[in-house]
Write a structure and sequence with these properties.
binds (2R)-2,3-dihydroxy-3-methylbutanoic acid, Rossmann fold, branched-chain amino acid biosynthesis, ten-stranded mixed sheet, NAD(P)-bd_dom_sf, amino-acid biosynthesis, binds magnesium ion, 356 residues, 17 helices, binds nicotinamide-adenine-dinucleotide
Length: 356
């Protein structure tokens, strides 16, 4: 474990230096890893595990679109691709990678195959933490672990193929065998994590639900829309408004932040911009802090879990989500964005080759 100073707090982090792939392969050498769920994380983790030399099988509903997707990815029916029940029976590690709402529906199917000494693996603490709502209560004689990539499954696979890795958290909820932590880390390394930090199931889900509703997805999209609308209401063209709101951020400034921090990005902008940004940063923080506090409370009380389960358990949940994403895509802001992306000199837009 590497001891890292995170702004004054020393935390232990697992890196590939002291936990190389060979060690992960040795720890899991007698395991058959069954991937149940083939949406976004499922394919990424299954393919990375397979490419890393682990013994992996996939469980899907025969005839489903995801069964066909698994076949396209080289999983062989009857050899590495099975019906869900057979995969859960054959697997000694069950990677439960259905959607969080889908896990509830499938739990009665999976539970009987979680026999003594097996490992139940998640990539989110949702199902276990909100057990009153999900009903997911594992048998006491199995290991229950998580490795949660802090990023999209599409990035998990892309970074692996680029020889890089994504950062992930890991946690042990139940250690029946005395080896749960080693298996959790080995699985995290096997699915393509570059390094792993420790958490617990509750902290993982509280932080994750907050982050994706906040700066990572919800807040950022809302701020983009607010600024774009003000610029457009004051006569700025769609291209000028989009470039000033999104394109410059993703193509110039955020990469600088990723490279060397916010202050370095600021220092690489004009003093005019630095002065103004430092002044207005305070105002935006003051305006949004109450919203983030409200968000965290909604997560911690289980209200966000309730909404997720209620909406994403409906038969037409995907269609409803697709409708709202279509509305977003067809908004003037994101239509302007599509035009701007085509204008990028290097046309570096990676084809939208999402995993799912
Ligand atoms: N999407 C990501 O990049 C990401 C990142 C980190 C963690 N996670 C976590 O990983 C897990 C899987 O996430 P995902 O985004 O890959 O899931 P997803 O929403 O893509 O769903 C995975 C599969 O579950 C199936 N499914 C959904 N409801 C079902 C039901 N009722 N019955 C049978 N199958 C059903 C879907 O068809 C899909 O094939 C979740 O716990 C999620 O929170 C996801
Ligand atoms: C990719 C995210 C947002 O980090 C993940 O948490 C998810 O739920 O998809
Ligand atoms: Mg997340
Ligand atoms: Mg999430």
């Amino acid at each position: 474990m590497a001891k890292i100073n995170f702004g004054g707090t020393i935390e232990e982090v697992v890196t590939r230096e002291e936990f190389p792939m060979e060690k992960a392969l040795d720890i899991l050498k007698n395991e058959t890893i069954a991937i149940i769920g083939y949406g976004v994380q499922g394919p990424a983790q299954a393919l990375n595990l397979r490419d890393n030399g682990f013994n992996v099988i996939v469980g899907q509903r025969k005839g489903s679109k995801t069964w066909d997707k698994a076949v396209e990815h080289g999983w062989v029916p009857g050899k590495t691709l099975f019906e869900i029940e057979e995969a859960a029976q054959r697997g000694t590690v069950i990677e439960f990678l259905l959607s969080d709402a889908g896990q509830i529906a499938l739990w009665p199917t999976i539970k009987p195959f979680l026999t003594k000494g097996k490992t139940l693996y998640f990539s989110h603490g949702f199902g276990i933490t909100f057990k009153e709502q999900t009903g997911i209560i594992p048998p006491a004689d199995i290991d229950v672990v998580l490795a949660a990539p802090k990023g999209s499954g599409t990035s998990v696979r892309r970074l692996f193929l680029q020889g890089k890795g994504i950062n992930s958290s890991y946690a042990v909820f139940q250690d029946a065998t005395g080896n749960a932590k080693q298996k959790a880390i080995a699985l995290g390394i096997g699915v393509g994590s570059g390094y792993l930090f420790e958490t617990d199931f509750k902290k993982e889900v509280y932080s994750d639900l907050s982050g994706e509703r906040g700066t990572l997805m919800g807040a950022i999209a809302g701020i983009f829309e607010a600024q774009y609308e003000v610029l457009r209401a004051n006569g700025h063209s769609p291209s000028e408004a989009f470039n000033e709101t999104v394109e410059e951020l993703t193509q110039s400034l955020m990469p600088l932040v990723a490279e060397n921090g916010m202050d370095w990005m600021y220092a690489n902008c004009s003093t005019t911009a630095q002065r103004g940004a430092l002044d207005w940063k305070k105002k935006f923080k003051a305006a949004t802090l109450p919203v983030f506090q409200e968000l965290y409370k909604s997560v911690a009380t289980g209200a966000e879990a309730k909404r997720t389960i209620e909406t994403c358990s409906k038969p037409d949940y995907r269609e409803k989500l697709a409708e709202e994403l279509k509305e977003l895509r067809e908004s003037e802001l994101w239509q302007a964005g599509a035009a701007v992306r085509q204008l990028r000199p290097e046309k570096n837009t990676v084809e939208a080759s999402m995993i799912n």
